[in-house]
Design brief:
With 296 residues, the protein is an alpha/beta fold. The protein has 3 domains: 2-11 and 189-294, 3-Layer(aba) Sandwich (Cobalt-precorrin-4 Transmethylase, domain 1), CATH 3.40.1010; 13-92, 3-Layer(aba) Sandwich (Rossmann fold); 95-183, 4-hydroxy-3-methylbut-2-enyl diphosphate reductase, catalytic domain (Cobalt-precorrin-4 Transmethylase, domain 1), CATH 3.40.1010.20. The chain contains 11 helices and 12 strands. It has helices at 13-26, 41-48, 75-83, 94-108, 122-128, 140-143, 162-175, 189-204, 217-227, 263-277, 290-294; strands at residues 2-5, 31-34, 53-55, 65-68, 87-90, 112-116, 135-137, 151-156, 180-183, 207-211, 233-236, 252-257.
C-alpha cells in the first residue's frame, strides 16, 4: 500500500497567522478570542492550555483584550466591541478582507447583494452584518427564492468550491436573463489549491482520508469533492478515528486535510498507516511546500 499526500493541504496562511497572533498576544496578558479561531478542536485545546479564553458573545468576555478571528466580522460588530472598551486585535484573513471590500463595492455601485455560502457560517454572518437587504444561496433551489432585481452583485464565502460557485452564478444568469449580473470571485487561493489537489488525489487513490474538524466547512467540501472521484472516502478528526478495515485490498491511500488542520494532527495519521501496513510513505510531511514534491 502506498500513501499519497495531497500537493496542497492543511493549515492555510490565514489560520497560521491568527494562531500566531493569539499566542503572541497571550504572552502579554489575558486574552479572549471572539468566536472559533479555527474549526478544529486540537487548535482550540492548544490555545486553552495557554490560558486563552473563547466566547461567542463579547458581552461575556472576562478580559480586556479581544481577538477577531480569521473569519472576520462586520463593521457594525467592530464598532460595538470597540465602544464596549475592548483592546481589539484583528486576525481577519486578508482574503476575507478582500471579500468584504468586494461586497461593499458591489453594493455601492447599486447591485443587489447575493452571497454564495452557508448562511449560519461565521464568515457569512460577518459579510452580511452590515447589509439591510441581501440573499444567501447555497444551492440551486435557493436561487428560486431570489427576488428579481435589475442589477445583482455576487460574491462567495471564501471556502466554497469554485466549481460550485461558478455553477450557481451561471444558474442565476440563466434565471434572470434581463438582470445585469456582476460576479466577483472571492474564493480564496488556498481553497482553490486544496480543491484541485483533492481531485488529483481522488483520481489516483483507492481510499482517501480527509482530516479536519467535524464543524469545518472547507473539510466537508473537500470530502464531497474527493467523493466525486473515489468511492471510499472517510473524514476523520484525529488518528484515533481511523479504522483498519477501511484499507482492505487498497493499493493506494490518499491523505488530505482542511485549512484548519495542523501538521501535528496530520502526521500521526500517516504514521499509523505506516505501522499498519509498512506503507511506502515520505518520512516527514511539510504542508504547502514539501507536499508539492511528495505528490508526484
Amino acid at each position: 500500500m502506498k500513501i499519497k499526500v495531497a500537493r496542497h493541504m492543511g493549515l492555510c496562511f490565514g489560520v497560521k497567522d491568527a494562531i500566531q497572533l493569539a499566542e503572541e498576544t497571550a504572552k502579554t496578558g489575558p486574552v479572549t478570542i471572539f468566536g472559533p479561531l479555527a474549526h478544529n478542536p486540537s487548535i482550540k485545546n492548544r490555545l486553552l492550555e495557554q490560558g486563552i479564553e473563547f466566547t461567542e458573545q463579547h458581552q461575556h468576555a472576562r478580559t480586556d483584550t479581544l481577538i477577531v478571528t480569521a473569519h472576520g466580522t462586520s463593521d457594525r460588530m467592530r464598532q460595538e466591541i470597540n465602544e464596549a472598551g475592548f483592546d481589539v486585535k484583528d486576525a481577519t484573513c486578508p482574503l476575507v478582507h478582500f471579500a468584504h471590500r468586494s461586497l461593499k463595492k458591489l453594493v455601492s455601485d447599486g447591485y443587489y447583494p447575493v452571497i454564495i455560502g452557508k448562511e449560519d457560517h461565521i464568515e457569512v454572518r460577518g459579510l452580511t452584518g452590515d447589509l439591510d437587504a441581501y440573499t444567501v444561496v447555497s444551492q440551486a433551489s435557493d436561487i428560486d427564492q431570489l427576488p428579481p432585481a435589475e442589477r445583482m452583485g455576487i460574491i462567495s464565502q471564501t471556502t466554497q468550491p469554485i466549481d460550485h460557485v461558478e455553477s450557481l452564478v451561471e444558474y442565476i444568469k440563466a434565471k434572470f436573463p434581463e438582470s445585469e449580473i456582476r460576479f466577483t470571485d472571492t474564493v480564496c487561493h488556498p481553497t482553490k489549491q486544496r480543491q484541485k489537489s483533492a481531485i488529483e488525489l481522488g483520481q489516483q487513490s483507492d481510499v482517501v482520508i480527509v482530516i479536519g474538524g467535524r464543524t469545518s466547512n472547507n473539510t466537508r467540501q473537500l470530502s464531497r469533492t474527493v467523493s466525486r472521484f473515489c468511492d471510499r472516502v472517510y473524514q476523520i478528526e484525529k488518528v484515533e478515528d481511523l479504522n483498519r478495515n477501511w484499507f482492505e485490498s487498497a493499493d493506494a491511500v490518499g491523505i488530505t486535510a482542511g485549512t484548519s488542520t495542523p501538521d501535528e494532527v496530520i502526521q500521526p495519521v500517516i504514521e499509523q498507516l505506516r505501522l499498519w501496513d509498512n506503507a511506502e510513505c515520505p518520512a516527514s510531511v511539510r504542508m504547502e511546500t514539501q507536499a508539492k514534491v511528495m505528490a508526484d
